[in-house]
Every structure is written in structure tokens, then in C-alpha cells.
Amino acid sequence: MSSHHKHAGDAAFSYLVKVGHVSANPVQVHVEADERERRALAALWNVEAVESLGADLQIARWKKDGIRIKGRVRAELVQACVVTLEPVVSQIDQELDQIFVPEGSRLARILTNEAGEMILDPEGPDVPETFTGDTIDAGALVAEFAALAIDPYPRKSGAAFDGHVEDSGESDRKPSPFAVLKDWKKD
Asked: What pairs with residue 80 in β-bridges?
């Protein structure tokens, strides 16, 4: 799919999808940030470096005039450890499932009932985003999902704040998704 024009927008990472070209059969797309885009993202996210950012996406029609983008976002970042300031490598591996509907679409309004409450399947995709015109920026969506997964307090394994001996990390309720990914580095 080389019908991908770089957009002179201000998105650090952009991959424009022409809505008119999307059919009910999902299109498989792989997007990958190049070096310039990774530098822009590192500045945007305030991290030392973005080593990689990529996603495998399926793009398909949703209902009559919406678009659904599903896939996985993977990234590798270098951040400064909050304790030692040494570089910490973080892996991100996020599921993505997002619906876009045209601005002003009935579908955008359908999701609230008479009482104005959201009627949404909790297992389903997030609240639809709206788009204007005939393009959706899948790159910006990928970057947004990756950004949400960045650990705000990266720590080198073994680094502890002085005087916090009791905090061995066991008190953190859920295991870090990165702990699981540490051993599983490169495909």
C-alpha cells in the first residue's frame, strides 16, 4: 500500500488512511516510524530515545460510514531511570482497537441513550473518535496508544530509593507489563 502521502501536518508520526478506499474486507497495514519521526516522538514524549515504533493494523469499514482500526502497537523506548538517571529500556506492546465515525454522524450520537448515559459494551472498542474529511491518521493513533503505555516512573531493575527498603516492588499491585517482556526482546 504505497498510497501513503506524507502529510505536512504537525503530527510527529503520520500515516493517512483514505476512508473512501476502505472496504468491508480488512486491509492489513504495517506502519513503522522512521528515524526523523522517532526523534520527533522522543521530544514529544520527553524520553531519551524512541528506538522503534511500529504497528500491525487491520483497517476495515464499521457499520455504514465508520472505520475500525485494530491491531498491536509495539515500541521500544529509552528513558532515564527515576532513581539513578541511567538509561532504562522499556518495551511497549499494546492492543489497539479504535472506531472512527464521521463528525456529525448518527453513530457518534447513537452511543448515548435518552438519559445521556453511554451505552457501550465494556468489552468492545473504546468510544468512537470522530474524523473530518476523508482521511484518518492511523499513525497519530498508533503514537497516541504508545504514549498511553509509557511508564512515567521508569526504574532500572534493582534501583531503589534510599530509605525505602520496605518497598521491594512487591507492593505494586499489578506486575509491570515490561517485566514479562524483558526476556522477549527482538522477534
From this structure: 87
Please state the pTM of the whole predicted model: 0.70
- Residue 85 CA to residue 165 CA, distance in Å, equals 19
- pLDDT tens for 151-175 read 988 888 887 665 444 444 444 445 5
Phi, psi of 52 (to 5 degrees): -160, 150
- Cα angle 24-26-31, degrees, rounded to a multiple of 5: 140
Each residue's pLDDT tens digit, 122-131: 555 567 888 8
Long-range contacts of 61-66 (CB under 8 A, 24+ apart): 61/22, 61/23, 61/24, 62/99, 62/100, 62/101, 63/101, 63/107, 64/107, 65/101, 65/102, 65/105, 65/107, 66/99, 66/100, 66/101, 66/102, 66/105, 66/107, 66/128
Q: Where are the beta strands (DSSP E) in 112-164?
A: 129-131, 135-137
The answer to whether the beta carbons of residues 16 and 5 sit under 8 Å apart is: yes
- Ramachandran region, residue 18 (left: φ > 0; alpha: ψ -120 to 50; beta: rest): beta
Closest CA to 96 of 136, 62, 56: 56
